[in-house]
Amino acid sequence: MARIGVDVGGTNTDLVLECAKGVFYHKIPTTLKNQSIGVVEGVQGICRKAGIDPAEVETIVHGTTTATNITIEHNGAECGMITTEGFRDILHIGRHKRPYNFSLHFDVPWQSQPLVKRRNRIPVAERILPPTGEIATPLDERAVRDACAVFRKRGINSVVIGFMFAFLNDAHEVRAREIVLEEMPDAYVTLSSEVAKVMREYERFSTAAMNSYVGPKTAFYLRDLDSRLREAGVKSKLRIMQSNGGVSTVESCARRPIRILMSGPAGGVIGGASEGAMAGEANIITVDIGGTSADISTIPAGAVKIMNPRDTYVSGHPVLTPMIDLVTIGAGGGSVAYIDEAGAFHVGPRSAGSEPGPACYGRGGTEPTVTDAQIVLGRLDPDMALGGDLKLDASLSHKAIEEKIAVPLGMTVKEAALGIIRIINNNMALAIRSNSVARGIDPREFSIMPFGGAGPLHGVALAEAMSCKDVIVPVAPGITAAVGLLKTDLQYEHTEAVIVELLKAGEAEFVRINAAVASLRDRVQAELDNDGIPRDQQTITVIAECRYHGQGFELRAVMPEGPVVRQNVHVITDSFHDQHQQDYGYSYRKAEVELITLRAIGSAAVRRIEIPAIPRTDGSGIDRALMFVRPTTFDDGRTLETPRYDRTRLLAGDRVPGPALLHQHNATTLVPPGYVAETLDYGNTRIRLIGA
């Protein structure tokens, strides 16, 4: 049966299809007003390309930026919140942190762009006490109904329910939801104890608020897409990529869209790790450069990292949901170059997107972009974009850079174009350092893996800036994130707060821990059962999130096999010490370790997409792939006659010396002078210095 991966970006929608006839790739412009239109068109298009009926498609795995875009554009739902009396301003106070300690002009997102306005946060009487979850003050049900009346009057239909210590006892939140749905049957309701059943009221409330803020629009998009696919004759199962690198169902993600805030970038990291394994490289730095943004992640020893909870912020708001460790910056082919009021030269983060797009698109865009600079420098051939499917106008690129950058700064158009490329590369190099060098990782031991439609044009420059050992270009760079969608498992996570000092734990504490583990396993198993996953194909792992006594945040630790007892509790503490040593460079082996949260991760393995190996070189030489020769300007300012090769006609073992451009439908790879590109076993490419 056929399977499709669909990754929707800010500029293009990328698709990969695996079926009995082979693996097929497709790329079309994103339909920004309604992404589902482009997804359906792309699915139909790639099926035509493969010569199969859409009804043959068994599964579609989708990576989406819908929820992310809502947070960036600040156009989520108007939310109401019901919270504990006396704690109405938790979302405003936050942690009293200054985003930039020494700036007098910093912005505080949770105050300037609140997820729930203060007038819509309504306190009610209720109180639950720690550490047992005992009810001290019953829930004032009349006050909850009065709050619903206020919400109805204000036209609010998305409701957050967040009570103090609900992570210890969720009875009041559950009852409040029942009342809200009695009063407002169509309301979108989020309980803090369901989306983040952990301590820290600000982070828990913020997570719940974010879920309700992005929820209605995200849920509509996912259900609308599912409906449109069925109307188009596609009856396949629709699965959604989550921020943690696993996939889930439409209904699950519609209820908890915070799970898919980093859905799009996650597919790229998974795809990058898999491409690294295909190339025999365990240490990879992935740089996914699309039209709007660049997503950067470091993968040491082939292991995709999950971000520490203290760092999981989205648009300035803390969101306690597992996310793949990556950095996103506004750097892509559509990043706009401009001169500010003080005369400084900038590139990004603002993007031209796909509508109107770069100036060369001829859709009305007049601002110069990175893509326009690549065209002026001869690194992109206007008649070869998307294999010739997208015709570009080089004269519009030249005009935009000349008028907006070159003339105001008193430089030539070529110098201005080189400046645009150097600035965007430097911006990306700084982001790579923050995800590698700043965390004790030596880039000299890593390969840069550039992908996305614009990635391979920047790969060598980034490798030089970071002193990486070489560049690995994936088989289909512009589609790598979509390929990653077909290389991941179904996955669910649930948490339970269990606060225990492990060195002092007695029999009662071990009973609590083991009861929580059993409850978590049951909850995860129920979700996998609902997806029709046979029990023998389910894998459930429980991990402990621990800290030193009084420490700010937790680290993940391994749980022992079987029930936790005095004889094996050291497995947790030893694992925590080891992780602390790895992350921070020190540990206190004799200090008290607190267990704070238990997390159960349930997964079910799915069939991975198999990229076929290509034939070995036959000795006929690389001229079989030669297309034509055109002048190209490189980073050192030299303009050289540069051959273009059809990358799909290169065989394993072929070596292409620079200067050269490798063309394929979804991306162009730049090989500068002094470098050589070697085609590897699966059609991927290694670029390194000649003689290295």
Automatic annotation (TrEMBL):
Pfam families: Hydant_A_C, Hydant_A_N, Hydantoinase_A
Domain Acetophenone carboxylase-like C-terminal: 511-676
Residue ranges occupied by any Hydantoinase A/oxoprolinase domain in the UniProt entry: 204-493
Coiled coil: none
Superkingdom field: Bacteria
Domain Hydantoinase/oxoprolinase N-terminal per the UniProt entry, residue ranges: 3-183
Name used for this protein in its record: 5-oxoprolinase
Organism from which the protein derives: Gemmobacter nanjingensis
